[in-house]
Each structure stands twice: as structure tokens, then as C-alpha cells.
Amino acid sequence: MTQSTALATRAPGATEESYLLAVARHDEDDAWLTEFGRHGWLVRFARNLAEAISMTVHEPPAAICWQAPNAPAQVSQLAQTVRSRTGLRIPVLKLEGQLGDDPSIVDVVLDHVNGQTVQQHAGNPALPQHVFLRAVHHWRSDQHNGRQPGALVRMDFFERPELVQQLGPVVRYELRTALLTAARTNASQLEIRGWSADGALLVLLRVRSQDWIDRRIKQINDALAAARIRAAPQRPLTPVIGVVRLTPTTSEAMALRRAAEVCDHAASRLDLVPQYATISGRGDAAHPVRRILGRLRQGSTRDLACAALSVLLGAVLPFGLLLVAHRFGVALAVWTHLAVTACLLVTAINIWAEGFASLRDAKPPEPRQQPRRRTSTAVIAAYLPNEHETILETVRAFLACEPDGLQVIVAYNTPVELPVEETLRIMAERDPRLLAVKVKHSTSKAQNVNAVIALAEGEVIGIFDADHQPMPGAFRRAGLWIDAGYDVVQGRCVVRNGQEGLVQRTVAVEFDSIYGVSHPGRAALHGFGIFGGSNGYWRADLLHRVRMQGAMLTEDIDSSIRCLLAGAHLAYDPGIVSRELAPATWSALWRQRLRWAQGWFQVTRRHGWRFVDNPTLSLQQRFGLAFLLRWREVQPWIVQLVLPLMVFWLWQNNWSLSEVTDTNLLLLATTLVLSTAPGQTLFAWLRAGPTTRKHPWWFIGYLFVGALFYGEWRNLVARTAHLRELLGVSEWAITPRR
Q1: Rounded CA gap, 97 and 94, in Å?
Q2: DSSP class of 150
Q3: Residues 6+ apart with CB under 8 A from 373
Q4: pLDDT tens digits, one per residue of 552-579
Q5: Which helix (H) or strand (E) holds 90?
Q6: Which of 3, 404, 437, 646 is 20 to 30 A distant from 731 in Cα terms?
């Protein structure tokens, strides 16, 4: 084993990742350590060519300083050998004279490794932390620059510590190179780069607007997400980025600390979204209604307030406007009447069209050749305190449904230790296909899924909630779609506890309507499917790129739309069935659907217009997205306008129903919409699975519940969710399984 001297002093900010390799005489060691230690550099020594090559290959330095006399051939050989063995262009500096006799040698070396400190340009290397902070301070001290916006960005790969531990120090330099390469992509002359003490890359974005900073960070983030290293070319890398806006009151040390904190927050989410440090004291002051709602401590009380506000805004206020318009001779009621009628007719036509389209069976494309057997992974996301009664049953069902090599990963979070964790650990020890992962600091399903994606070995990754039990052969059938060029396949979800009560029976029939009629009908009409959060099968490389974003209440819908906008192909296959549990009470169902509705609204606000001029989407798909995102959010408010219009007509005719003649068209449209309840029930019956179809009375009960109550109840949920989102109320409750 090659021996080398590694005794050195280190200034604050220097790291083991930033060191100089000096090929020098023994009597020069003290001078090198003293002079470069004052500038924050660690120095290591090699005594000959072989030692220099060995040390460089195992742990590449920032630069190699050759001070041995009369050895130009060896310097050339060293540079060529290092480049051929590592693929890196490490500077090899041939120094004339002795460091003790010529102090200018220090400046020559620092000019190469520091990139001339503050006057660094896009192609120069990064600075040590202490030099970087000095450069930031120098720029901010300038009176003109002090008035300009700027940001300190910290970026790293989440996998860096693990990869260095597994593959050794050589991979450290590859990761550093990948970070620098991404940071240099489309880099500006107004950027300064440096290394933090723990090896993350720091970038100062000088001047420019916030929009420019956001675009620049997105460029870097995209480049980091696409990065690969030679030591592990198949291993995806997850960028974690923290951004701090520099203000006159923010010191360099504080900005560095805050950037590390938000970078840690990004590492807990792993959703490929850069995290920005928030400025305290902003937000609530501009929202008095939000402050009032915040004083309502119980979530149910806040929801009731939002529901009452939705009635006030959607029924009482329009009625008042109709009265005022009538008083001033404006025929607002007539135009409102026509608009509402047209909208209701459009809704009814769409519902019937989806129903007829759903009658066509969607089957996997026939393979042109013998289908290849793809490796598969099932990811089961669980909040264990809520799932501890069902998780073991679920795991056993997964291990039994695909006995020939399916990898099963249980990604769970829990604030307290539970006995079921030990049971999961024992099951994992006995069956190598099972992996139980406790995701620390997780607060969402999205974080659980993102945390274990890197552990998934399958080419197809299925995502499931903890109460799901897929049918045998589900992954094989999904693989046929993947082989045919699709990227995501959504299967059908059916309720397996419908016999337990009225709520469960209602949801069981509703799921036959949603997954048996709406999903396949929409896929046939609009040319795309939607990942619904569970029983969805992803091409592994796409899931690595897209991830789940925990900031969204319906991260599944958000990921679906992002995939569509990026040109991915999403299919729906009603033949891939998974059984799940329905909520047991109306209050639990209300909380579940309120979260779903608010999540859909979040997605509409984020993506509602991005599809309009998207070149990757067909006209059919754009029309479908317009209906799915925009129309579905407007429709609950339009339906509510029927009530103020009817009351207005009654008021105008002295409250005599017999004298109301101008509402015939409106009544016709309302009748058509109400007739969709029998239509939806009929289609649900025709497309029902065997477990619910053997209970015809469930469908008859759903017909009356849907026509008289359930339809408007869902509209109320949607309107309440809209107001919650607009007023900044984002808390939501876990749906209990039992």
C-alpha cells in the first residue's frame, strides 16, 4: 500500500474534498502546510510519480503541484495517466523554484484553484467555503450591488453520502464534477460558485430579478436531475436545492445556515422541487378572512364556515344581484337563465357520452412478439398509526399475488413506535422479497414514496395505499401496456367492505361509476388516463424523474398532469383490479372527499392553462384537459345558480308557481341533469364488478341517494374545498380505515 504524508493544518471552511497534492521535497513540507493552510487549503504530499498517481486515482485533488526538479517527462506522464484513469482534467502545475524562497508560488497556485477569487467566470472551478464567503461579502459591500436582489443557492445530491460510503472516495470527485457541470449549464458571468464545508455546492446569483433567479434555479435543477456518474450509471441522482434571498439584514453566515436548513427540508421531501427560505411576518396580514378562520380551532367548524360562505357567495349573493338588476331594468335573469341552461346541458351530454364510451372494453395491446418478463416493484405507502390493523393483511396479499419475484416495499411513517413494526421486520427477514422502510421525518404519502424509489429494483413500479389488495397477475398485465409504449397504467379500484354499512355501499356503487364508467369513458373520449393514487403502474425511469410532490393534497393527480404535459402516455385498464376499503362514516367520507376536491383545485390552479398551447398534446387531449381541470371546477357553482334563479322567478310572479312560465327551458335542463343519476347508475350496473353486481339493491339505493342528496353533497364539498384553498386552509385529516 502506498504511504503518503497526510499531516496538515486546516483553516475554517477547508474540507477533505478540497485538497492540494504536492510532489515536493521533505524539507518543503512545513512551508506548504503553513502557506496554504493560511488560505484554507489542506495539503497532502507524494514523493514520486507512482505515489502521485495512486493518490489521485483514489481521491482526486483540486490540483497537483509538481515541485520536483528536472522532470518534465514525468509531469506529462502524470497528466496523461490521471486523465486516462479518471477521465478528469485535473490541473498539473509544474513549479519552478522553492516555496520557501519564492512566496509568489502561492499566488500562482491559488489563481488556478480559486479561479482568481471574486473575478471568477462561468468556466472556472469552485472556491473553498471561506473564500466563497469572502467573495459574497466583497460583492455585497459594494454600494451599488447592495441595492440589487440576489440569492444564495446550496445544492447537493441526496445519495452522495451513501454512494461515497459504498463506492469509495473516487466517486466523490465524480459527484463534485456532476454538481459543477450542472451549475455551469447556461451559467451567467454573474455567478460565483464555491464548496461548503460539508461538500455541497454553493452558488451566488448576483443581481437579476426574482423571475430570472427562478428560471436559473430550474435550469440547474433539471440538469442535476438528469446527471449520472460513471461509477453507478444506472443509479438515479436526486438533487436537493435550498435557496435564500439575500437581504441587507441577512449576514453571509446566516444565509449559509438558512440555505443548509432549507436544503435539509428538500432532502426530507425528495420531490425534485427546490425549496426557498421563507421570510417570516408575511402572508396573514393581507387576509382578514383567513385570520378569522384561523381562530376556529376545530377543523369541522372551519369547514362548516366555508360551506356556509359558499352558499352565501353562490346563492344569496346572486339572488341579490338579480334583484338589483331587475330594479334597474337590466334583464340579468334572462341571460343568466340561458347561460346556466347551456352549461347544464353540456354537463349532461358529457356524462352520457362518457357512459356510452365506457361500454367499449379497454384491453392491453397485443404484443408483436413474445412479451419480455419485466421486473416489478410494489410500493405500499402507509401512515402506520392509521394502517396498523390492515397493513399485515395487505403485505400478505401482495406477496401472494405475484409469487415469482415481485419486490414489495412498505414505506411507512409513524410518530410513535408500534408493535406492528417488529412484525414487519420479522416478515422482511423471512422473505427477501419484502423490504420495510421507516421514513423518518415524513408527514405525507408523497415523502414515503419518494424516499424508497431509489430502493425499487423493478422496471415497473406499482404504487398502492395500505388497504389495497391487487388481483393476481396485475403486474404482468400492466407490463403489456408498458411494453406497448405507455408510461403509466391506472387500474380499477373496487370496494371490498360494501356490506358493512350505508356509507360503504354508497361508495362501492360510486366506485363502479367512477372506475367502471368515468375513467374508461374519459380515456376513450379524451385520449389519456389519470393516475388515481393507488393501483397505478409506472415506468420506473419516469417515476424517478417525476416524483410525487408533497405540497399538493392530490399528488397523484398533479403527477399525472405533469406527465401529460411532458408528453407521457397514460392508459386506463379496468381489467387490472385492486380491492380497497371505503370510509365507514359520513364524516370520514366528507374529510376524504374534501381533501380530494381541494387537491384537484390545487392542480387546476397550477396547470389550468399550461395545456392550451402545449405542442405535445393533441387537440383531443387539450379538450379533455379543459373539461377535466377547468369545467369540473366551475360546474358546482353553476349548478348552485339554479336555486337563486328559481327563487327569483317565484318572487317576480308573486310566489305563485303556476304563473312561472319562463323557466321551462331551465326545468328541462335540470331534468336532464337529474336524469344523469339514473343513467350513471345504469352504466355503473352494466360495468360493475362481480362483488357489487350481485347486490342490485345497492344500485337502487344509490339511485335515490344520488338523485336526492349525494350529487348536491359532492357539489357542496367542491365549493367548500375551493374556499378552503383560496383562504389558505390546507390542514386535512387522515381517513380512518376502520
Answers
A1: 10
A2: -
A3: 479
A4: 999 999 999 999 999 999 999 999 999 9
A5: none
A6: 437
